[in-house]
Amino acid sequence: MGGRCERFSYPLGTRRLAWENIRSRPFRSLCLMLAAAVVGCSLFGGSVLVIGLERGLRSVGERFGADLMVVPAGAARKAEAILLGGDPGYFHFDGGVADKIARMDGVERVSPQLFMTSLSADCCDALVQLVAFDPATDFVVQPWLARSLGSGLRDGEMVAGNNILVRPDRTVRLFGRRYPVAAKLARTSTGFDTSLFMSRATARQVVAAAQAEELDSPIDPVPEGAVSAVMVKVAEGHTPVYVAWRIRRDNPGVDVIVSQSVVSAISGSLRKFTGRVRDLSCAIWLAAALILAALFAGSANGRKKEFALLRVLGATKGRLAALVLCESALVCAAGGALGVALAALAVFPFNAYIGVKLQLPMLTPAPEAVAALVVASFAATAALGPLAAGFAAVKAGASDPCLTLREGE
Amino acid sequence: MATPAPLVEVKGLSKEYAPGVAAVAGVDLALGAGEFACVTGRSGSGKSTLLNMVAGVLRPTSGAVLLDGLDLFGVSDREASLVRNAKIGYVSQGANLLGGLSVLDNVRLPFFLAAAGRSGDAAAKAAALLEQVGLGRFARTRTRPGEISGGEARRVAIARALVNDPSLVLADEPTGDLDPENAAAVMELFRQIAHQGVAVLLATHDPAAAALADRALRMEQGRLTECATRE
Ligand SMILES: Nc1ncnc2c1ncn2[C@@H]1O[C@H](COP(=O)(O)OP(=O)(O)OP(=O)(O)O)[C@@H](O)[C@H]1O
Ligand SMILES: [Mg+2]
């Protein structure tokens, strides 16, 4: 007979007793598990969102590159939209401003950029922002291009933002011509994702070619010597805001964007949002803890007879408490795993969409960060069980063993 | 025959559920290893109350229960629990099986409630005990307590009481819902256990069952009297 009962001879330790109990009350267990899943989902989803947004903001700060951006008067809003919102646009003013600013006190470097837009690129269904920089003076685009390229950009070559569709032969088509793509940038969740970067000389080729093609949607003619923006690096020891004020004072036709204030404006609204997400997650966790505590206590009440019997059979109070804690930990761990998985399914595929909805740059956290969040969210949810079941565990231990003896069958 | 050294000593045991009303009043009893004693008495005379106290489960109003010299109500709850688990097999008046566990798991449950560090799984032992109470077929199935009869459940509880090789077995109406044939088999089992050196104390209404015991005790309004000692 020994061989035949082997099938049933798994030890009946605390964990298995807890498991048998969970199994024998499927509805109750399922409800508890789903409650825990909501917690796991909100913790993981919320933290991925918060960290993704913080990371997005950091990338904006990094890519902005210049301390100040001087644009034609009235174009400041448009320029911000180009940089942050990925809303392509164009404007220009006389490039002579750049030299004037360069000579000012407190200005270390200046470099002009030219913005153009193109609808007729067949790489994308939306407008593409063309950004031309001056390789000789540029200090904004080239440093991070160099990081991904390893070398400078050759004439005729372009660098594509992450959302630009690059053909398999590593070219993009613009106004009927193909241009080689030297590199594709990582996602930034900013306007750079829908931009094509090139040197001023390449931009001139693009314009000339576009005009030669006689297209339906011709590119706007750019007056010789015109620029869209002058990027300014402020010298050590000078405050960007003060330099900006002086530039504005001395050049009536310009607007100055201070990158610090742009980033801090975003980070202000971001902080408000992430704060709300954090508060909500904490509230959900706390509410779940209280509700689960009540449910566990209630179920301990309903199981008085069972606990009493175990006491009669010689289970110590500690053993009963361990049983209740183990049960709640198993249920909440299962719920936590489920919740984290559901949140991952919801957050990752729609990451970009969520960022657009919130009108904030959003980047998926790095894999290590995601792994850490998975572990932390899961642990916080699993810990919810034993925490909430603490009172129930004490109650179970205090069961009067005589209860079982009196009521009979 | 030399009197065996008392395994269980009950001294001046009383229980008042309500002040002034004693369900058990000043009971003294000594029970040696291998002794088979049977308490009879009217319903409400205090038999279950006495057994609950001797089992260490119901705290007496006054008096003491010593098992192997250890005062069950004078030690810590933890120690008392472990003694209960290791040395006392109690078949209470209701069968009280755990509905979520199989019959076999119910029988071996006390094995796993022991202090930590036990090896083995008691499955073979539990199966053999089920065989002894005539329920060997449940050792090979996943049958749950809800699927067996009241008399079968009672016998499962008896098997459960024996799984840890207790030195004291208490049984409250163990034959109450059994047919004469099974009742006789169960009584025979208790006899055998007593012969192996276990102290057995039964409470029953059944005179036929009581006649099988070595010692007949009578409970009347909470007082215990010795009827006769058979040779
Ligand atoms: N928990 C309790 N609270 C109050 N009174 C109780 C309690 N348990 C038993 N009693 C009372 O104590 C007395 C003895 O009860 P007990 O259960 O010990 O009798 P018994 O001899 O086992 O009866 P039966 O043969 O019907 O099982 C009864 O009068 C009963 O009403
Ligand atoms: Mg009774």
Written overview of the protein:
The complex is a heterodimer of chains A (409) and B (231). Chain A is an alpha+beta fold and 409 residues long. Chain A has 2 domains: 187 residues, no CATH class; 179 residues, no CATH class. Helix content of chain A is 57%, strand content 14%. In chain A, strand 6 and strand 7 form a beta hairpin. In chain A, 45% of the residues are buried. The N terminus of chain A is likely disordered. With 231 residues, chain B is α/β, with parallel strands linked by helices. Chain B has a domain of 66 residues. In chain B, strands 6-7-8-3-9-10 form a 6-stranded mixed β-sheet, with helices on both faces. The longest helix of chain B is centred in the C-terminal third of the chain and has 16 residues. Chain B is globular. The chains are: A alpha+beta (409), B alpha/beta (231). Chains A and B meet through helix 1, helix 2, helix 10, helix 11 and helix 15 of A and helix 2, helix 3, helix 4 and helix 5 of B. The complex binds adenosine-5'-triphosphate (ATP) and magnesium ion. Adenosine-5'-triphosphate (ATP) binds next to helix 1 of chain B.
